[in-house]
Write a structure and sequence with these properties.
The chain has 307 residues and is of the alpha/beta class. The protein folds into two domains: 2-174, NAD(P)-binding Rossmann-like Domain (Rossmann fold, 3-Layer(aba) Sandwich); 177-304, N-(1-d-carboxylethyl)-l-norvaline Dehydrogenase, domain 2 (Orthogonal Bundle). 44% of the residues lie in helices and 17% in strands. The chain contains eleven helices and twelve strands. The protein has helices spanning 10-21, 33-42, 80-87, 106-114, 155-165, 176-197, 208-227, 237-247, 254-260, 271-281, 286-300; strands at residues 2-6, 25-29, 44-48, 53-55, 59-60, 70-73, 96-99, 119-124, 127-132, 135-140, 144-147, 170-172. The chain has an eight-stranded mixed sheet, sandwiched between helices. The protein has a four-stranded mixed sheet with strand order 4-3-10-9. Helix 6 runs parallel beside helix 9. It is globular, with a radius of gyration of 19 Å.
């Protein structure tokens, strides 16, 4: 199969490397020509849960050399529209676009560009950290879910086979929106708090102040989900968030990584997404609003920080 990976971040590099090793034709699309050149020269280096290896994958900032069967969108949620429009010239009649992004609205944004029938949603519990350009740490294995299932032998079924062959434990589901909300609520409880406090995941539920804020943020998100009629994929959301904190106690959350590198974060699509959906339903979300505003303030003042 032919895969185009959009975005050479941690997850994009991990998917690209493993899919290439499994025998697929893989290319990476990057808006940064210098970074693309560096990856072409040195390859993608992975170490961690899946071993240590280097894979050379064509990386480009311009034309793609083939019509992909699958386009995997692995950019930050605030760049979804731009990424979708950038690959539109390369999509073929049988191409399928797949999002493995955080936050709300990604599948809807891509469906506006390509049409609902050409877009699959996905969530993954694979853990990866970007160490440098084309260099990642594979922090841990986890389940990947894609959907909707579609017809037998259709794009989702074929992608399922390719992902499992590449070593990713993958299954199909029809309730992808519920899975996206399930992952969203975990991110709501962890990411912004780590970015503000600069603490690893495991510390958030252990400190009284951050624990209380986490509980309130999760409670608001669950209330919004219930207002939308979302059935979450777990019974006790707060316990689930705490379990994830404990299981990833040494992880540096993606939003904290962005803040440490003075990049734009995905807060608008995570905590900010809860605020927007709450506004539509008339549900107050003051804690998520404060968290969103604080992260936005940090982003706007990177050059003014005292330390």
């Amino acid at each position: 199969m032919k895969f185009l990976i959009v975005g050479p971040g941690a997850m994009g590099c991990l998917f690209a490397a493993r899919l290439k090793i499994a025998g697929n034709d893989v290319a990476i699309l990057d808006y940064n020509e210098k970074r693309a050149q560096k990856i072409n020269e040195h390859g993608i280096s992975v170490n961690g849960a899946s071993g240590e290896y280097t894979v050379h994958i064509p990386t480009m900032a311009g034309n793609v050399p083939f019509t992909p069967d699958y386009i995997l969108i692995c950019v930050k949620s605030n760049n979804t529209k731009e990424a979708g429009e950038s690959v539109a010239p390369f999509i073929g009649p049988d191409s399928t676009v797949v999002t493995f992004q955080n936050g709300l609205g990604n599948t809807e944004t891509l469906a506006e560009i390509f049409g609902q029938t050409k877009v699959l949603g996905g969530v993954t519990a694979q853990g990866a950290t970007l160490l440098g350009e084309g260099k990642i740490k594979h922090a841990g294995e986890g389940e990947t879910v894609i959907g909707p299932k579609g017809k037998e032998g259709g794009p989702a079924q074929k992608l399922l086979s390719a992902m499992n062959k590449a070593g990713f434990e993958t299954r199909l589901a029809d309730n992808v929106e519920e899975l996206i909300w399930g992952k969203l609520i975990i991110n709501v409880g962890i990411n912004a708090l780590t970015a503000i406090t600069r603490l690893k995941n495991g510390r958030i539920p252990m400190i009284n102040g951050t624990r209380r804020i986490m509980e309130d943020a999760v409670r608001e998100a669950v209330t919004v989900a219930e207002g939308k009629g979302i059935v979450l994929p777990y019974e006790d959301p707060l316990s689930r968030v705490i379990t994830v904190c404990e299981a990833t106690r040494e992880n540096v959350a993606s939003m904290l990584q962005d803040v440490l590198k003075e990049r734009i974060t995905e807060v608008d699509m995570i905590n900010g997404g809860i605020v927007r959906e709450g506004d539509k339903l008339g549900i107050p979300t003051p804690v998520n609003s404060v968290l969103t505003n604080l992260i936005q303030a940090i982003q706007e003042t990177y050059q003014e920080r005292l330390c």
